[in-house]
Design brief:
The complex is a heterodimer of chains A (826) and B (343). By secondary structure, chain A is α+β, with helices and mostly antiparallel strands. Chain A has 20 helices and 38 strands. In chain A, helix 6 packs antiparallel against helix 9, helix 7 runs antiparallel to helix 8 and helix 13 runs antiparallel to helix 16. In chain B, helix 1 packs parallel to helix 4, helix 2 runs antiparallel to helix 4 and helix 5 packs across helix 8. By secondary structure, chain B is of the alpha+beta class. Chain B starts with a helix and ends with a helix. The chains are: A alpha+beta (826), B alpha+beta (343). At the A-B interface, helix 7, helix 10, helix 12, helix 13 and strand 26 of A face helix 5, strand 1, strand 2, helix 6 and strand 3 of B.
Chain lengths: 826, 343
Amino acid sequence: MRISWNWLSEWVDLSPIKGPSDLAELLIRRGLEVEQVESLGRGFEKVITAQILERAPHPQADRLSVCSVTLGSGEPLQIVCGAQNMKAGDKVALAQVGASLPNGVKIGESKIRGVLSFGMLCSEQELKLKDTSEGILILPPETQLGLPLADFLGKNDIILHLKVTANRGDCLSHLGIAREVAAALGQKLKKSEPQALQEGNCPVSIHLEAGDLAPQFFGCWIEGVKIGASPDWLVRKLEAIGLRSINNVVDISNWVMLELGHPVHAYDGDEIRGRSVSVRPARKGEELPLLDQKTIQLTGSELVISDAERAIGLAGVMGGGNSEVQLSTHNLFLECAEFDPKLVRQAAGKYQRKTDAAHRFERGIDPADLGHVMSRFASEVVRLAGGRIVGSQWVRGASRAGVAFQRSEIVLGLHEVHDFLGFERDQAPLTLNQVEAYWKGLNCQVVREPGHWRLRPPTYRWDLNIKEDLAEEIARTVGYDQIPATIPPLSSVPTLAVSAISQVTLMDRVKDALVNLGFQESLNYAFTSRDNLERVGLKSSVRLINPLSEEFEWMVPSLLSGLIRNAQENWNHHFGSESLPIRLFELRPVFSAAGPIESSGRMNTGVQESWKLAWAMSGPRMAGGLRADQAGVDFYDLKAVAESLFAELGTRGVRMIPFSASRTGGNPLFHPGKSAEVLAGNAVAGHFGLLHPAISRELKIKGELYLAELDWAQLLKLSRGAFQVPVFKSWSQFPGMERDFALVVKSDVTVDKICQAALKAGKPLIKEAKVFDIYRGSQVAEGMTSIAVRVIFYDETRSIQESEAEAFSSKILDAWKKEFGAELRG
Amino acid sequence: MIEKLSAIGGRALEEIEKTSSFESLDQIRVSLLGKKGSLNEVLKGLSGINPEERPVIGAAANEWKRKIEAALEVRKSSLEKVHLEQQLQKEKLDISAPARLAHRGSLHLVTQTVRRMMQIFGRLGFDVTLGPEAETDYLNFEAVNIPADHPARDMQDTFFLGPGVVLRTHTSGVQMRSMLAQKWPVRVLCPGAVYRCDHDATHSPMFHQVEGLWVDKNVRMSDLKGVLQFWARELFGSDTQIRLRPSYFPFVEPGAEVDVSCFRCRVKASDDCKICKGTGWLEVLGAGMVHPRLFEMAGYSGDTEGLSGFAFGIGVERIAMLLHEVPDLRLLFQGDVRFLSQF
């Protein structure tokens, strides 16, 4: 909202305020955000009204003239001018030496083709009054000389651009801001609002048919007006705060609203059929042509202003086109009413008409000001558009009838404000008398009784309802900077029913582990395009109803689409012959819905959120080194990361199986033979492996991209937990013994089976069986694999005898032979 | 005989001293001490000597043998030393060649910043909790005093997933869940992703917040100020000041926008300060005293006299961008390793 310094000065004495930035500071300290301070006269300093005394041709240049110009007093100035549209006697705008024009031109004393010039005669373009202009600005003959041009144009004003918070409907006017300034300065307003308009003799009957949704309506009939242009001062007044002049009556209604904060409306009286106006719920399907030339079809939930036959306005939002004030209008029906804020908001939202009126009604107008607002409206109409007030009527529903409307009382203890804000009781800067004075300055009715106050906020302050609201009034009057800083005590042993500290600790630990393994954490938006998902074979079941664009439409069902895209984009900007190392991870929820997405109860959304831990790797195994160190990562590097994380989390019982052994058949995002399914108990906890070559080809990925995505909750189920610490285990004091075997088995025998068989057959002496080499090739028969296995025996209580090791070795070998037909390699 | 021994021995010691290779040292050893070595030759001649002199000469011969052996040993070890030196002279690495470097990982700036803040607030006694990102309209808005058709809804442009289901616009719903789960005292931080329909260099449709809530008997606005001051000093430096400006958020009353003094130009408000643009202050968070309506919504009843609290909400990206001088918010969400690897 824009507030004019000059306009504000009509209501409050601004002389104690040094300048615009001080006023802005004062408002900011009171919670009114000032976004911009605009000086309308910027660039008009040293631009003065003047008159051309003589115009002579320039001796050296045909296109130039040499003018003698007077400011009304003092020596005339010699000015060289290139324009052709002026003559001696014309009144003009002279930019004196030292002026710096709105278009950025700085005026200095200059010599133009040998003739001195002491300023410049300005065009409207140079003054940024118009986009283009021909010749210089010629002012009306009656223009007084020697005036600052800014004064002459009404540009000697400062405009403050305010951002008023949604709770302060009372600050959406010059009066409202004036009240705030007055309260801050400890002043009274310079003028009081006019007496309420006398009622009676209204030729239009007014009916309230919507109960509390439209609790009051003030109507006034004026006869014999002449619709025309507004006087210049009104045009300039509205222009200064960014409003275009329409005609005198419409301008007055805007003026009244911007000054007093209450939207008003004028109807062409002769268009009101049946001389009857009612506020009623709209009829379903009813049509209403609006002022902006468009017709809306009403649904029945809106309120309309209606004559005897039809709707003539959408209550609180916009007037009807069928009753618009036009040049031919003779009689006026004026409206000043109160409507339900929510209803106005709904209607303005539904029909996309966030008008200035709706903005104010939504935030609450002063329900007690209808009388004087109408008085002001009607009298200005008569003053500027002529005519006479025939009669008026103020109709009030039950909630606004009887005694003058007032707000309910708030009772609060004498020290509650101090205690709540953290001030010492009844001491500077807050004595009880000061507190009371601050409230009174805000027009609260205050009664002090033993131990407490009874307070009644002014009718326009809808934001004051509870003690805390009153405390805030004190806080912002005394200044938030005056509030001390303290640290609250821990009143009891900290406990939190919903603490996530264990979960967060494990997340931190896993993230740190990944960072130590060389991974960078990526964060992708939780929504993406359908395309992005489809190209990697994914489908989302959760869609945004109002996405910013298709790019952000579907909630991700997997983190992998994001990581794959990250990898691609990194490859895209990568150059050179080296392959780019990709080590990315993300730990975030993914989204799905099995049924409809709607709230049930207060906590349930129908959306399933599961946290996933995903990572992507590609490119050289090491970050630096020579060619030999730059070998690309493979499946076993990926698997190493998984195992490191399992160790970090202290998970027990995680199994990895090939897709061929999976109940679900694995995951189509991955290469079926170079990937693993992770099982936590019997539940699938995720997959890792090589990106499926078909997808890779489709995405034009040249290298190998290894991916993993694990379900965080499943992992946590098997985790030791964040705070379950490992306990000490002693190790054997006696050396163990190891035996190596080179086996030849069929290639479909997996090494984990060989190890498991050894561990089983070698009990209890065997402690470890590990594969340390795998060979397929010309040295072994087709379809066979040579596997080198090392088994380690030891006993915690004694040394192992050679003969025992031999005996167990042959047991193990027998088992291998029996189970896999394994032979020792010759 | 003695003289002869001395001559052989003395000469041998000289030769040993001059020897510069293992081969010649070995030759000397053989020529003196071998079966046919000159020392042995001398000893063989003992048979023709007066038996009384034999022990004397034998002892002298053995003495010379011992001396020579020792000298040989000394010379050998010194030759070995020289030899090793020579060897090492040849074994030079080019230490400027590239290291076999492991990849260096990094936490996302958002994670780093959230962690720092949780550490700071954790020292004051805050616990932490998490909540869903798809939230009910009820918990995101209604329960925190933003009823339907309230103008305050304009403050947060909301993404909807279904009837009554939104992507949370703040983590205040999580605060509410904490209060629904237990009575006061509640001292909790709620970090997490939040969503609003906005996208440019300073607004992201998804961003992160750390919200804090402290509810107990007799919590004062000065407590809010003290806690935020502590936070600001820990995060931005010990001479950081904070400034509270009155503002409005429906879930708090009084409400405040909180600025911290520019950590770069220290309120000198120099016009060319890139960080604060010459204002000396940085707007970093919103805060206030918990609106009593929230206690009602949480079902708090009984002995609620004097129950109060404060809450604050900090935009994580904003803080991260300020601290690390990141010019464009979108950089945080692009997974670009040129960006990620810097922090």
